[in-house]
Model the fold of this input.
Amino acid sequence: MNDQIFSSKEVAAMLGVNESSIKRWADSGKMRCIKTPGGHRKFRLSDLQEFLVTTKFSGIPFSNPITENLGDSKLTYSVKYRDYPALTQLLYHYALDADSSKIFNLFTVLAVHDYDYAEIFDLILAPALHQIGSDWERGTVSIDQEHAASAAVFDALVRVGHHSAKKMPDSKKAIVAVAGNDLHELPAKSLAVLLELKGWQVLYLGANTPVDSISQAVARANPEAVLLSMTLDPGNSDLLGQIKNLKSGIMPKGSKLVVGGAGTENLRQFLPEVNFWAKNFRETLQFLQQ
Done:
């Protein structure tokens, strides 16, 4: 279950109603909520999903911004029947428009309708980003458009993570980083958000992180897992040797080393130390939750 928390104002915007309606439904028990020590109502994603089912609420959250360029009926059909290609195209256009709010809103629409975020990232976000990259290589998308699209998606991912519930002190810890001279961090950031939604404490080191710095973070945090994204083939660099040293340093702590990304296709025979080679988000989460 994706674990996110929303305010009364945010839920009202999602359902297209007044905030007073949300408060009234919460106080009457029609919509479950939790109360903060200060008396503020907060709503879990599961509360919203339950409300949609029990009340047969027919609206699509964020209907105005989401359907500005797409009819309500088509969006409803795409969401209900999991029309991934159509949803991918919608996300593709929002990204090229550099509209992080619409991207975040679409993510939330799907989550409220019982899409798991691993499903969203694997089957909608990843294809949209791949299409943008392919269009950039063909020259139909400019460098500034590609950069702006990446920044908008990153901002939306940050907002998703911001809504995740607070972690317990005994939560599992993970370090997520982009290894080497690699600036492509959207896969790593997506994975970090997924782990946070599953209750992990995540130390996100971002792009272009030297392996020595990752080792230092491991020594301080003692994580259960270290996850490295590599979208570029390291070639003849000393990165492989550094990763081997990283693994030898974390094995006594029982940590798992997970490596994934487009740049890892030819590395398996050189890095037997890796515990799991990540192909997609869903399989990676399954491995970590074992």
